[in-house]
Amino acid sequence: QVQLVESGGGLVQAGDSLRLSCAASGRNSSYYAMAWFRQAPGKEREFVSCISWGGGSTWYADAAKGRFTISRDNAKNTVYLEMNDLKPEDTALYSCAAGTYSARLRVGNADYWGQGTQVTVSS
User: What is the pLDDT of residues 8-31, one digit of tens each?
Assistant: First the structure.
């Protein structure tokens, strides 16, 4: 199976930036579309961004457009989420996910999930 481990979260002030990383390991781990989701306490899990396995296509939620950038380095089996101009409403547990079909992955139908990394943005 594929293992996903996120890192890079932390406590920041509004307007700051963070880069999240998701390291994948396991068989064929570089051939999955990858996505980031987030979930705040008492809220539904929310799609943030997705990238195709080759990195040629990306998708963003409206809340992420213009501020977040997803990328991947298949040689390192790692996906990144650059988060700029962070706002308090970005506070959530950020999880990465992997799936063979990006359209299904974007709605939360993933084959694998990571445990998540906490991002907290103070005002």
Answer: 999 999 999 999 999 999 887 778
Task: Please report the pLDDT score of residue 29 as a whole number.
Answer: 72
Question: How long, in residues, is the chain?
Answer: 123
Residue type at 35 in one-letter notation: A
d(CA 9, CA 104): 26
